[in-house]
Design brief:
By secondary structure, this protein is mostly beta strands. The chain has no helices and 40 strands.
Length: 548
């Protein structure tokens, strides 16, 4: 069918129950774009908004395979009835208005705002059609959703990457103010027809208007194909080398470091391994006792701590594991924070049963290093800005718990902090809106759903062994636990944040309370249960003809 693109979006009905179809846009016989989506003209549950503003005013031909009726519409804006009011919309975690998201990309503080880019599929609530979505914030808590930043093109769909400010205009792409640079993987081939027959490479896009619009570099790719599915560039300035360093995933558990002086031309420096990990490298500096160290981690949060010298990265500690669940994935750190903190956001890969979206980002955390028994340990804690969301607290202190106890918090996001000593035979179950978190301090074990992790870390016993799993010695005398609860997840920070996990757990509205269920009369030194105010965007004003 022929269609004049007279509005910013084409709209299409979609349902997860349908089979995947291939939608193609042609102009005079030339393929402009192709998308995989589950078109459903009979019983749709989702409206896909596909941004076609780059071809505005042009007439295109739409084809669908397998062939079916394609009830396409046009819209100047995304208009979704009941947006941000869905029963299972997370209250304090980032979610997209509609569609699929996965890895966070391009986290950067630029011209007074925090920018969060992310892997984005506008065509449904499943993975595919990778674009870069875009949102901004002034406090890391409340996010404003902006237009899509990067679109698939002839080089491939837009896989993960990073952002950095070219403060000295080394690229020559600035206009008197430092440009923002986005490095991304151009994921050629696969089901993407427009890039068929090509290999994955690393590309660059830039903005001189604070991220309002982006231009892809005419000299792309900036890194040619190296091997296998090489992807996910992360770029940082390394003072010790007086060069920029790019960490790039290669294959297996191997990563390559490359260097550049101009952010355009890159040469290989060395290869490193993260046993048991792959994809999405992150690299950032942390200072401890006045000395600067570097952390290199992969998508599963196995990390190395080391230092840079003229010949490359030298490992001082690790590999170790920070996160003990498969829900938290592909965490990335912000570039250019003015206060010097290292703040990270992860993707929480789970399934939220909503027709409009299915994923969320983890709560932002601040990273720091500790040194114990001669080893460097990475730790994470929710960012301090969370305190601005506190609005009410239930607390307990210095009690021996012999009977179950209930805190009637209501169905709201929570920030809990617990301290309790290790006592022989004493256990505690926390039931959080129906999700059971079982603590066995004597055995140094926490279990929640499929997650099993230590409560405390003995650094000399936490090295990753041949099995790829950490081993842990007996716990110390007191445990500390921080828990963030939202409608779809429970996030755990044990032993000062040196042990972390995210659990996929939908809250039960029939159980709007926190319950403490003791065994063996555990002693509660302190428990604070703080209610968190929602960070959801304002509810849009309804308009006539709104879609799903």
């Amino acid at each position: 069918m022929k269609l004049l693109l007279s509005a910013k979006y084409i709209t299409l009905p979609v349902s997860d129950r349908a089979v995947t179809k291939k939608l193609c846009l042609y102009e005079d016989g030339r393929l402009l774009a192709d998308y995989d989506l589950k078109l459903d003209a009979i019983s749709p549950t989702f409206t896909a908004y596909i941004d076609v503003s780059q071809w505005l005013g042009r007439t295109v031909e739409l084809t669908v395979a397998p062939e079916m009726e394609c009830p396409v519409g046009l819209s100047g804006q995304v208009s979704l009835l009941g947006l941000w009011q869905e029963p299972l919309r997370p209250r304090v975690h980032f979610t997209v208005p509609a569609g699929w998201n996965n890895d966070p990309n391009g986290l950067i503080f630029h011209r007074g705002r925090y920018h969060l880019f992310y892997q984005f599929n506008p065509c449904g609530t499943e993975w595919g059609n990778m674009h870069w979505g875009h949102a901004v914030s002034t406090d890391l808590l409340h996010w404003e959703h902006l237009d899509t930043a990067l679109f698939p093109d002839e080089s491939g769909t837009m896989y993960s990457g990073c952002a950095i400010e070219d403060a000295e205009n080394r690229t020559g792409l600035g206009d008197g103010r430092p440009p923002m640079l986005l490095y991304y993987t151009a994921a050629a081939g696969g089901r993407h027809l427009l890039s068929a027959g090509k290999r994955r490479t690393q590309g660059l896009a830039w903005s001189t208007d604070g991220g309002a619009s982006f231009h892809k570099y005419s000299g792309n790719p900036v890194v040619e194909w190296l091997e296998a599915g090489n992807r996910d560039p992360k770029v940082v300035w390394v003072e010790e080398l007086e060069r920029y360093v790019m960490a790039l995933y290669l294959a297996g558990d191997r990563y390559r470091l490359l260097t550049s002086g101009d952010l355009l031309n890159w040469v290989s420096l060395q290869e490193l391994s993260l046993p048991g990990d792959n994809e999405c490298p992150d690299i950032y500096p942390l200072t401890l006792d006045g000395k600067r160290h570097w952390v290199l981690s992969g998508a599963r949060d196995i990390y190395l701590v080391g230092r840079f010298e003229a010949d490359g990265f030298h490992v001082e500690s690790g590999p170790r594991r920070l996160c003990h669940s498969e829900v938290s994935y592909a965490a990335q750190s912000f570039s250019g924070l003015p206060d010097g903190r290292i703040v990270r956001i992860a993707w929480n890969r789970l399934h939220i049963p909503s027709p409009r979206f299915s994923q969320q980002m983890g709560f932002p955390v601040e990273m720091h290093l500790e040194r114990q028994d001669g080893e460097y340990l990475l730790a994470a804690q929710p960012i301090r800005e969370i305190e601005t969301l506190w609005e009410g607290c239930e607390s307990l202190s210095q009690i021996s718990l012999s009977q179950p106890l209930s805190l009637n918090t209501g169905l709201q996001a929570l920030d809990l902090s617990l301290k309790m000593p290790v006592r022989p035979g004493a256990r505690l179950t926390l039931r959080l809106f129906g999700c059971e978190l079982k603590l066995n301090p004597e055995q140094n074990e926490l279990t929640c759903g499929t997650v099993r992790m230590p409560l405390q870390l003995r650094p000399e016993a936490q090295q990753i062994g041949q099995s790829g799993q950490p081993q842990h010695k007996q716990a110390q005398n007191e445990l500390e636990l921080r828990i963030l609860v939202d409608c779809a997840t429970v996030e755990l920070f044990a032993d000062g944040g040196k042990l972390c996990a995210t659990v996929s757990a939908l809250w039960d509205p029939n159980l709007p309370r926190v319950e403490l269920i003791p065994q063996g009369e555990p002693y509660i030194e302190s428990l604070s249960c703080r209610i968190l105010r929602d960070t959801l965007p304002p509810v849009p004003t309804p308009s006539a003809g709104e879609l799903r």
